């Protein structure tokens, strides 16, 4: 049973590392002038990896339950207390998840910056020009101002 849990943690680590790589690609895409060509495949890859991570977490929780531990991080912490290999793999997984979280936070800031820039650009393009009187009126005469 512990071997299955260890294998599950190894799979999770590989998937989190793949997710972190996708985040690095996303960061690159967000820093180029024309990101729209690069972003769709990255978003698709991230979506697939998120689904896989959810499946792996559910499988881990099932294994933990079969071993008599609660689900989630509490259960894996208890399992890790009794096994050096599980503890080491859990530590690696937590470190990788932290790196991915940091990368995701950076990408969120890049997205907000880009959105802010786009909103400012739109606002600049939508400036309402005050209506100026025509140089010549409809009758062909120059209108008198201030009279």
From TrEMBL:
The UniProt record lists the keyword Transport: no
A single GO BP: bacterial-type flagellum assembly
Pfam family, one: FlgN
Record's keyword terms, sorted: Bacterial flagellum biogenesis, Cell projection, Cilium, Flagellum
Domain of life: Bacteria
UniProt keyword tRNA processing present: no
Function: Required for the efficient initiation of filament assembly.
Stated family: Belongs to the FlgN family.
UniProt name for this protein: Flagella synthesis protein FlgN
């Amino acid at each position: 049973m512990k071997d299955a849990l260890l294998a599950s943690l190894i799979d999770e680590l590989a998937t989190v590392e793949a997710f972190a790589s996708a985040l690095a690609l996303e960061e690159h895409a967000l820093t180029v002038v024309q990101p729209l060509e690069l972003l769709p495949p990255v978003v698709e890859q991230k979506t697939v990896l998120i689904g896989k991570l959810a499946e792996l977490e559910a499988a881990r929780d099932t294994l933990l339950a079969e071993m008599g531990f609660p689900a989630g991080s509490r259960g894996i912490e208890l399992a890790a207390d009794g096994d050096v290999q599980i503890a080491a793999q859990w530590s690696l997984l937590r470190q990788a998840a932290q790196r991915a979280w940091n990368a995701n936070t950076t990408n969120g800031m890049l997205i907000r910056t880009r959105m802010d820039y786009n909103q400012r650009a739109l606002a600049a393009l939508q400036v309402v020009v005050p209506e100026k009187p025509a140089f010549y009126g409809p009758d062909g005469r120059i209108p008198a101002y201030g009279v």
